[in-house]
Amino acid sequence: MPEDLEAGSMFFTRLKEALEQLGPAAPPLGMDIPFCGGLIGYLSYDFGTRLERLPETASDDLHLPPAQMGLYDWALVTDHCTRATYVVFHPSATAERQADLCTRLQASAPAKTDFRLRRAFSRVITEGQYRTAIEQIQAYITAGDCYQVNYAQRFSSEYGGDPWYAYQALRSACPTPFSAYLSLGDDQAILSLSPERFIAADSGHVETRPIKGTRPRGVTPEDDRAFADDLLHSEKDRAENLMIVDLLRNDLGRSCAPGTVRVPELFSLESYPNVHHLVSSVQGMLAPDKDVFDLLAGSFPGGSITGAPKIRAMEIIDELEPTCRGPYCGSILYLDVRGRMDSSISIRTLLAWNGQIHCWGGGGIVADSEWRSEYEESITKVRVLLETLSQFVAEPGGSQDTRAANIAPPPCK
Fold first, then answer.
1. What is the pTM of this model?
2. Are 320 and 154 in contact (CB under 8 A)?
3. Is 381 a catalytic residue?
């Protein structure tokens, strides 16, 4: 890391001081509200270079800040189980501020703004470059450098208008438990449809839920069950999942009390509109002298999107992926003044930034990975996102083109 850049530990210190300055808060008695004021924002994957000494050779063509967190003294919180919505104010919010926010929340929504893609999505690397990278990873594995490396490719297009309307279409097509929309100002945003939790923390209890193992959904119920059964009984996918579980046990062990880290759930099936996933759970209790910032510093970025061992895998990612990942494989998180936190692994995530929109798809590469299957899996994971946005591709005459995005792999030769 260049000497003129702020270290991750210093950034976390500033965040901690901001929470302390905001001061304590608690929800009304009997209400379990996750956020009572605090921090909301993102850590990009590349923020990892602020926490560990790593090479930085991949092109930073995005020029996105490696982290951005806002401090909030209010929130609009919806409980989808009880169908209730609450406006929550931190005690520091003045009566005038509360009245102003309530007035603004009751105002009519702004007129709808359009969103459009100026062209279909295209790959940043060629099929041949993808194959070469996979072969190099497997050479490193054979040499004993690593056991697994998460390799990703990027798809890019150009856009105009407000990304919020693209996110609404994506959310309808692919509802996931860690979806998030972060406005970056001036019609720029992070649009995340993530199914994966990074770390949750509440009253000292912490949990991470790594995803490792993917199959597409079937066209018929019979095909769908066959894909799910194949994933559940795949020795390769179970071995990949177990590697990452072991890595995350070590990461949580840096901040958790000795003897508290456990794996209560291993190789569970979770199904989403486009894919089946193999998911595990690793849990622990924070040590008395540690807090959530120690937990983040010791675990970021998530092991499920790096590989094992983590540092060597990240070095290989930097060597073989031509561009920085930006928000992809980073984390979107909230952290309230009580120390309660939840965070995602920002997979299935798009960045609308400086007139361009980017999406990434990847997967874990091991010794017996077959490059063609990995290539197709990286596309399967994001196909529903890119095909949903293909409805916004403007034809030369200005109308919308509903053809599928140009992302399908060519026929096998």
1. 0.92
2. no
3. no
